[in-house]
Specification:
With 119 residues, the chain is mainly β. Helices cover 4% and strands 52% of the residues. It is built from 1 helix and 11 strands, in the order βββαββββββββ. Strands 2, 4, 5, 6, 9, 10 and 11 form a 7-stranded mixed sheet that branches. Strands 1-3-8-7 form a 4-stranded antiparallel sheet, with no helix packed on it. It is globular.
């Protein structure tokens, strides 16, 4: 069973930084490389929203306007790991963050990890 497991979340003060990781298991690194990888988040009472994405081979990145200039998505295909570096965090970044792997008809989701930005 293919799995994606997030880590690195927690409580941080406004202006602080966190780095999320998402590690894939039960698939080869070449298969992992073929997936577009995404980070989504869902705040209480709100719909899940796409935060950042990185394409499969040419590594093109896209960001939601709300995180541009603060968040950086990256991937290490050999380690089968997706990252999200989050800087200058704001209270409105508080949410459960999910990694997502997408390829044609395939869609995999991590279990989600809580990020709380509060003083």
């Amino acid at each position: 069973q293919v799995q994606f497991v997030e880590s690195g979340g927690g409580l941080v003060q406004p202006g602080g930084s966190l780095r999320l990781s998402c590690v894939a298991s039960k698939l080869t690194f070449s298969t992992f490389s073929s997936y577009q990888m995404n980070w989504y988040r869902q705040a209480p009472g709100k719909e899940r929203e796409l935060v950042a994405s990185i394409s499969s081979f040419d590594l093109v990145t896209n960001y939601a306007d709300s995180v541009k200039g603060r968040f950086t998505i990256s991937r290490d295909n050999i380690k089968k790991t997706l990252y999200l570096q989050m800087n200058s965090l704001k209270s409105e970044d508080t949410a459960v963050y999910y990694c997502n792997a997408h390829r044609s008809l395939d869609d995999y989701w991590g279990q989600g990890i809580q990020v709380t930005v509060s003083s």
